[in-house]
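Help wanted!
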Amino acid sequence: MEKRRPQLSLDELHQLKWLLGGGLVLLSVATVFYLDVDAWTLMALTAAGVLAVLVKPEWPARVPVIVHRLAFPAIVALFVGDLWRTGEILPAIVRLDILLLLYRGTSYRQKRDDLQVILLGLFLIVVAGVLTVSLVFAVQLVLFTAWALAFLLVITLTEAAAPPVPARAGDPSGPPAWTRIRWGNLATRVRAVTDWRVVALGTGLFALVVVISAALFLAIPRFQLENSLFLERFVSKKARSGFNETIRFGEVTEILQDDSVAANIDVTDRSQIPATPYWRMLVLDEYSNGTFKLSPRLRRATFDNERTGAFVRGSRRPRLGLPVWTFYLESGISRYLPLLGPFELLRFTTIQNYRAGQVAGLVALRDEPVTMTAYRVEGMLTGDTVPDPAFTEFLAKPRAAGPLQSVELLRMVGVGEADRAVLRQAVAEITGGATLTVADFSVRAERWLAARHSYSLQPAIPAGPGDPLVRWLKANGGGNCELFAGSFVLLARTAGYSTRVVTGFKGGTWNAYSSNFTLRNSDAHAWCEIFDPAAGAWRRVDPTVGPVGAQEEVRGEAALARRTDTSWSARFDSLRVFWYRRIVNFDQRAQVETLKAIKDATEDSGRKLRERLADLFRGVRDWLAQPWDVRRIARILAVAVAAAALGWGWREYVGPWWRFGRRPGRVGKADPVRREASRWLARFGPLSGRAADEEAVHAALLRLRFGARETWPEPEAVFRQARRVWRESRRRRRAAARLT
Amino acid sequence: MSDFLQEAQVTAAKQALDRLRAGMQASIKGKDDVIDQVLVCLVAGGHLLIEDLPGVGKTTLAYALARSMDCPFSRIQFTSDLLPGDVTGVAIYDETAKEFVFKKGPVFASVVLADEINRATPKTQSALLEVMDRARVTVDGVAHPVGAPFMVFATQNPVDYEGTFPLPESQMDRFLMRLQMGYPQPADELEILRVARMSYDAIAVKAVVTRDEVIHLQALATQVYVEDSVLDYLLRIVTATRSEAEFKAGVSVRGGLALRAAAQARALLRGRDFVLPEDVSELVCPILAHRLGLTRQTSDALEERRLVVGILRRILAAVPGPS
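Answered by r_m:
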């Protein structure tokens, strides 16, 4: 009897290929979710098109031939037009890729077209992976690889079954026969022809490759791939936090509308987290024409000297006992790095081009990073003051050389005379004509603002002539943090205090699952810093009232408890942090420790095994060395006889019952006797030219496999006979082979 | 009779069939596979359609079978003016008895050769096909059994279609099997030429089994065991023909039953009381091919036969057998 495993027909292979190809296209275009490319319509169109032709595979045959003839010129024209319109090469290439996938996914494919689908999909996956460096990418790549391997296997099988493939794109002769797909039947057939042992072996090998790759990933040094490629100009996803180097009043901004994660922050000592942390990113010191901006002087002083290196030395002196902060800044947030204040040392994972203002405690990268950027900060000040000895000295000696910021600029109100009069009036109301300390003025000004203005996400600045901030001050309407901060600066400067606006993040949440701080784009905030000559430092003032304004001060664990986030989104965010902790490496210590731990565990296991073997050997030797007398020999013989009896009983009774007797009445493949007979028949193979004893046992096996149960010979006897005959037959064959 | 065949019964059946085979082999040279299939058809209680050119031994085959069984044989040459009564018999008025007496037609024999069946009108064809189905002739409300065993050898020429009435597919379904004789091998033909014999009446065949033995063999065949996985295999083949786009319609339930009966007969012929998957697969083409029509047009009937057999072989290759 022939025992060859059945194969899928050519039509069924085509159907399977169609399904796998469509699935691969869907898997590939899903990457658009992770890219900030304007391709949503294309993606939806591709997904809908591919799903439609998966359900109705005969539809592509209805497309007129002219469409296929014009398809590629049209796609090329669209690409050129796209490039001309946007001027960005990579987004245009991504859209071109999706267009090609759409066309290939919805028309009948030959072998080269199937391979093209794999390459096009791979391009999308790799681009998305390099740009996001996320855990999703790893999962998607593994999934894509497994899927593509299965697809390639089916392509190869199809080619082997029929070298010339008749179905061509645009073939006018109608849909090919294989398009009459019944998915249920196909699934049954695939299940029937699948050799599950091969599938299990293949899956095991694939898993092994993945594990080895993961081990290599752990072992090799990290590197920033995007720094080596042309992709750095291609921002993967832009946040809407609205950070830039100016604040223009009167514009409608989208601040507070984006809840996505801006940064995750690990800290070694959670008790040192301030009750309400203010993450400084940029200082805006100049106000004119309704706009706060970074003055050219401060820019020169702070950001002019670009440096290249893996770490930044700050203005702070080394001090023990301060926690280490690790920041994971998401892509598209800003090139300015959030920091709590001046620091001792800031370390990057790799060499960066940066500009650092040590006094202001600011660090900016050359470009906005295209991937997550990690940096570790040591010795960072977390209080509400930023010491500025140079400015203190300048105030004390106005003619000292090289002032970092001029007093004039920091006290420049930058509004017209009429508006200035309004501000003076307001300051008179705040101070009551008295000369106040910085702290007193700050408190009174905050109260004055809070009494007249409420917090609002939709600030209303009345139209009219003059400065927008002054108009808002007069109008008693609602305002956001920028308006409060800007107004405070104008009031303080009118009163003669050096003041500036600071932008960054305020607060954040404590992720209970991964034990880290999470900043969201909705935490973006603006506040002020007013110089306190008595302290020689800039003192933080947050004049904003309402939900993001000054809140009740709670410190330590209580502060964390209030900020703790245990929501489902926090669970997902924690996965991201775990992944970052795994891939981010500031030095090789953790990596070396991991490898060392693996090595130690392996050596330890080997040593324990050797010890156990040595113990066993010693035990046997001692046992043999004991005196041999009649009683001992008799005892050993008794144990041997008992073991032999047990073995015989198992073989004769328990074994057959265990294998064949437990489930009587079951038929077909499930019947253990029939299954065993089937196995032996497969082993014997075709019977032509066999010896008489083989024929006899073959006939008995056939009866066990296909005969009525009531007519069976004793199964165990037949199988024993089969085993014996098989061994003899094998011996005969080997002897014959030696002779020849 | 027990539900399962005894070894002695199977041995006796095999011996009887071996004798029949040997008897026919003495008259029909080089056609052992055809003889085996005829015996399968006989034991399964079916009727046979032979499509081949004139003069390749169809009549001799039928005659040899009839003589080997010691059963009556008759031959009906179908022509366009042949009437149903010419086949089944007619009731004629007996002057002496003063009543109508049924005069049996040539169909009242154990082996009936219906030569060139497609030359008769559909009405006459239907008369014969009714007898094949019911094994009796009904005239004036009276049923006349044709006796047992009863086997019709119908022949038709697949090439010459001029002035013929092709059998519709529904009637083709009544035949258990369709065979082609084909030309013998040169060595066998030389042997035939050596024995100069122009008439099949001159064939000397000794009866080797009795009519009762044949009836007994047919009864035994129905008791041959078919294991569930083999039945499942058979069913999957039949189902595959129903979902095959190239066929107008798949094999009927009757076709599936015919395949099962034929497989049982083949197992008995091989001396087994159980059916193997190969019993099924070997008989798929002769049992199922004539029940299937193609959706597309073909140049001639031979081309259609070839295509149908090709598709059936593809289905056989695709349907996995019981492991």
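OP: Thanks! One thing I noticed: The interface with chain A takes residues 3-4, 225, 227-230, 232, 243, 245-246, 272-278, 314, 317-323 of chain B (CB under 8 Å).
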